[in-house]
């Protein structure tokens, strides 16, 4: 029996994309005699414009620890998928044609939320789709964990650890800005793991007066420094109440003055307390380098889970992990939904119990 599968990685890269594809292909080649694997270049672009190449088992050897993606990736916004390209090409039709031309049994798509929405669209268009949840944000609904997240937590935690020594030596206030525009999971986990004193995330809007009060409380207690873990998408209470359009305008105005929210917060703290505040932004370093052992194991399990679903010809699903078990989650149920931190989550409560301020 010949199995023909397509693989593509889309959206922001992260650690363990290669490890996951390796898991899928290794598990399939051990179960199927004739396996044909087509890798699409640079995410959905490759599927739209018919840019692909055949891969062999050799291509998946030695990539367990390699970061990035051997296929390349790109961001192709979901909202533009139904909009023809500059030459008038119907992207959805083009993707379907590539799929049918190659007589694929299924397409395995690795990506985050936006990628998943397009994967679901292709499912609705009749293609056999399996989505594998990647992102350092861990914000995909229907899975407890995404691959990439734990590796990024390690890096962001390490950044806070490194800042700790300098903050202690100089007696300064430091902000470490952590990735996550809409969801603060990465900031929350790295903040706790790195011993941050204040954690600001999009789901819990902050009051700058409370943030300053938390710093002053530490000063009064004789602590020489304060570390804030701030998510890219941290938002003040005041801004959270603005209508979407007004907030967008405010962000545009802020961008002219500050590179990001952390610099605005640093300025505000400086004005209220007079403390010297430094900002560190690890940025894309958080998505780079090799996957941590946790992610290598998760990816291997997710990859093997995908192979099993392909053998069962069970499509239109995401391979997630729920309560420690690999689960097939219908795309129709999870696509288009974000998994956010709830201010009521146990982890937030625990952080508050040990004295971490969320500025709320
Ligand atoms: O979704 C992953 C992510 O790294 C976010 O945490 C971050 O906000 C965004 O991507 C950055 O995107 P880009 O790589 O396009 O700048």
TrEMBL record:
GO BP term, pick one: fructose 1,6-bisphosphate metabolic process
Binding site for substrate: 135-137, 172, 179-181, 232, 278, 284-287
Chain positions of site Important for substrate specificity: 114
Primary subcellular site in the record, as a coarse category: cytoplasm
GO cellular component: 6-phosphofructokinase complex
General function of this protein: Catalyzes the phosphorylation of D-fructose 6-phosphate to fructose 1,6-bisphosphate by ATP, the first committing step of glycolysis.
Subunit organization: Homodimer or homotetramer.
NCBIfam families: PRK03202.1 (NF002872)
Name listed for the protein in its UniProt record: ATP-dependent 6-phosphofructokinase
Gene name of this polypeptide: pfkA_2
């Amino acid at each position: 029996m010949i199995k023909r599968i397509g693989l593509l990685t889309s959206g922001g890269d992260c650690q363990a994309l290669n490890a996951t594809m390796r898991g899928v292909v290794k598990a399939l080649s051990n179960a199927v005699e004739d396996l044909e694997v087509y890798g699409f270049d640079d995410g959905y672009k490759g599927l739209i414009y018919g840019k692909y190449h055949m891969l062999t088992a050799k291509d998946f050897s030695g990539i367990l620890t390699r970061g990035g993606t051997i296929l390349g990736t790109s961001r192709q916004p979901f909202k533009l998928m139904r909009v023809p390209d500059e030459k008038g090409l119907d992207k959805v039709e083009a993707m379907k044609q590539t799929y049918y031309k190659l007589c694929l049994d299924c397409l395995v798509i690795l990506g985050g939320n936006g990628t998943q929405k397009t994967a679901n669209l292709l499912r609705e268009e009749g293609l056999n789709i399996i989505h594998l949840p990647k992102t350092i944000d861990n914000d995909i609904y229907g899975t407890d964990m995404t691959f990439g997240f734990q590796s990024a937590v390690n890096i962001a935690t390490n950044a806070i650890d490194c800042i700790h020594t300098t903050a202690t030596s100089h007696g300064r206030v430091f902000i470490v800005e952590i990735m996550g525009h809409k969801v603060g999971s990465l900031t929350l986990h790295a903040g706790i793991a790195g011993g941050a004193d204040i954690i600001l995330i999009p789901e819990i809007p902050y009051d700058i007066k409370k943030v300053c009060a938390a710093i002053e409380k530490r000063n009064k207690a004789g602590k020489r420094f304060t570390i804030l873990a701030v998510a890219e998408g941290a938002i003040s209470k005041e801004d959270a109440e603005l209508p979407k359009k007004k907030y967008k305008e405010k962000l545009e105005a802020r961008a002219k003055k500050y590179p990001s929210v952390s610099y605005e917060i640093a300025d505000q703290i400086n004005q209220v307390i007079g403390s010297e505040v430094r900002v560190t932004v690890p940025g894309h370093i958080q998505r780079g380098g090799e996957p941590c052992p946790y992610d290598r194991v998760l990816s291997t399990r997710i990859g093997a889970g995908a192979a099993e679903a392909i053998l069962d010809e069970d499509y239109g699903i995401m391979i997630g992990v729920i309560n420690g078990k690999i689960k097939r989650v219908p795309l129709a149920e999870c696509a288009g939904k974000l998994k956010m931190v709830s201010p009521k989550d146990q982890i937030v409560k625990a952080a508050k119990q040990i004295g971490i301020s969320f500025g709320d």
